[in-house]
Specification:
- The chain has helices at 2-8, 18-22, 52-56, 66-74, 109-119, 147-151, 164-172, 183-195, 197-202, 217-226, 270-275, 305-308, 322-330, 341-347, 349-365, 383-404, 410-453, and strands at 28-32, 38-42, 81-83, 87-89, 91-96, 125-134, 137-144, 177-181, 203-209, 233-240, 251-256, 261-265, 297-301, 315-319, 335-338.
- It is an alpha+beta fold.
- The chain folds into three domains: 2-215 and 280-350, no CATH class; 217-275, no CATH class; 380-453.
- A hairpin with a 5-residue loop joins strand 1 (28-32) and strand 2.
- The termini are far apart.
- The relative contact order is 0.14.
- Bound molecules: flavin-adenine dinucleotide and iron/sulfur cluster (2 copies).
- One iron/sulfur cluster is lined by residues 3, 7-8, 13-19, 40, 56-59, 188.
- Residues 3, 7-8, 13-19, 40, 56-59, 188 line the site of one iron/sulfur cluster.
């Protein structure tokens, strides 16, 4: 089948499930692969070769990218702006919902939005991700009809989830739906909406999440071993907040079938696996959408100096739809104020580097099966950046392969990464020494220019 040969066999599937939901023959189901990621598998032979699966896949060469999709959706909105990093945007805000903050990932704005959409009758159903209690599938997308149910989905799931079942439900049950999703999932929904009238009419609001990478289910297994979890994990909370730590030092807490509870903070080993891209699907290496450009509104963390200290978490919003702008401007029960879009971009500086400079270099190193990106392949002059990309790619592959063999030994995994971790640490030190005089010169030049103008 085309989707298997073109996407899955090139290891470019992110596991969204849209191909499986839309296949007219019902020939695809979503299953775990050996790396703990979702892929479609063929359950019966495809006899029509209609190609719909490829037309909705965010990693296929559909001839559409986030700029063309965003342009069609938001390009004609009065007052809309566009930046290469963000795509289209109408307004940007910083703030929180006091009621949602304690259980949410950052300022609780995503849950507030979904609840308000239901409360005000703008949608009949909200689709979000919620814990299942099933050790083999800890999180899943579900369709909810009440604000109380939506609140059970608050928080981030750094875990694979797929949409085939909920999209089939949208196709089967009339009504107006709001959907949350990562950038690639919402791109798939937009591609599907172009080809399916029911999805076009029924999905009326999309709430995106800014995204740097997804993690396989093995990432959760690995962090559980770091936390000393012995039993079978039945629940995880990924964004626990501690009043004595900054917002970016959140904790993961694990619960097991025998009632054990363990927690581990981000700086106790999670950050090492996260930033070095261990257990990240290959598709994320070729992603150029930072801010969910196909979403009516995108929510993210306020990773900015003024907000980091507040452990309760603060949200940034990038709004593209006038209807959502009107909703947040009325803002019942929230504390929100405008913020410059430049600051929103600044808050995601690390992700911008990965999805622009790193991507450009990755496209030089290995672009097997990768469709055209909005970033041109380029070999950077910066030697540190080249080493960083190569080391992180090696570690990403190694983590997938080691855990994929069934050997689940956290110590052995860290040992295997040792060489690359050392190389990165040395390169980082060298880069600091080399960059110091350059940064000082730039600073002096800025100061002199400032004085001359002042
Ligand atoms: C894999 C992943 C990577 C991310 N990377 C970044 C990043 O680099 N920078 C950044 O600022 N923010 C990132 N985020 C978003 C961030 O973690 C928060 O989700 C966001 O700030 C919204 O917080 P909130 O308090 O407003 O949302 P909440 O009130 O906590 O609500 C979050 C909503 O999103 C839904 N949800 C949770 N996980 C998923 C998922 N996997 N797929 C679809 N919906 C989901 C929940 O069900 C809930 O409805 C990422 C999120 C995920 C899941
Ligand atoms: S990315 Fe989505 S649409 Fe593409 S093959 Fe994977 S599950 Fe199917
Ligand atoms: S990095 Fe891109 S491809 Fe990976 S999950 Fe996020 S949006 Fe999807």
């Amino acid at each position: 089948m085309t989707i298997i040969a073109n996407i899955v066999e090139h290891d470019l599937c992110i596991g969204c499930g849209l191909c499986a939901a839309l296949c007219p023959q019902g020939a695809l189901v979503m299953q775990w692969n050996r790396y703990g990621e979702y892929n479609p598998v063929e359950t019966s032979p495809c006899t029509t070769e209609c190609g719909l699966c490829l037309k909705v896949c965010p990693f296929a060469d559909s001839g559409e990218n986030e700029d063309t999709i965003g342009g069609r959706l938001y390009g004609a909105v009065p007052g809309v702006g566009h930046r290469p990093e963000t795509g289209y945007y109408l307004a940007s805000y910083v703030g929180y919902s006091e009621r949602h903050r304690p259980t949410s990932a950052s300022g609780g704005m995503a849950t507030w939005l979904l609840e308000t959409l239901l409360d005000e009758g703008i949608v009949d159903h909200a689709i979000c991700v919620t814990p299942t209690g099933n050790p083999d599938k800890l999180f899943a997308f579900r369709v909810f009809d009440t604000p109380e149910d939506v609140r059970t989905g608050a928080g981030s799931a750094y875990y694979p989830v797929e949409m085939s079942a909920v999209i089939r439900q949208v196709l089967a049950v009339p009504g107006r739906y709001a959907v949350t999703g990562l950038p690639c999932f919402l791109k798939a929904i937009r591609l599907a909406q172009q080809r399916n009238k029911k999805l076009r009419e029924r999905i009326v609001v999309t709430v995106g999440l800014t995204c740097g990478q997804l993690k396989s289910k093995h990432f959760t297994d690995y962090v559980a071993t770091l936390a000393g979890v012995l039993g079978e994990v039945t629940g995880v909370r990924y964004r626990g907040k501690s009043p004595d730590r900054p917002a970016n030092n959140f904790y993961f807490s694990f619960t097991t079938a025998d009632g054990d509870e363990r927690r581990i903070f981000r700086n106790e080993g999670i950050s090492e696996a996260w930033t070095n891209r261990w257990f990240t699907p290959r598709a994320c290496n070729y992603c150029d959408d930072i801010f969910a450009e196909c979403a009516d509104v995108t929510c993210m963390d306020a990773w900015l100096p003024g907000f980091l200290r507040d452990s309760r978490g603060t949200s940034l919003l990038l709004v593209r739809s006038p209807a959502v702008q009107e909703l947040v401007e009325r803002g019942r029960g929230i504390c929100l104020e405008p913020i410059l879009v430049e600051q929103v971009v600044q808050s995601q500086a690390g992700v911008v580097t990965v999805k622009r400079q790193h991507l450009a270099y990755r496209l030089c190193l290995d672009h097997r099966g990768v469709p055209e990106k909005r970033v041109a392949p380029a070999r950077p002059l910066n030697l540190f950046l080249r080493q960083e990309v190569a080391a992180k790619d090696r570690m990403r592959e190694l983590s997938r392969d080691l855990w994929g063999t069934g050997e689940r030994d956290g110590n052995r995994l860290r040992e295997a990464m040792g060489q690359d971790l050392k190389r990165l640490a040395v390169a980082r030190q060298l880069s600091k020494i080399i960059m110091f005089p350059i940064k000082t010169l730039r600073y002096i030049r800025r100061e002199v220019r400032g004085r001359n103008h002042g």
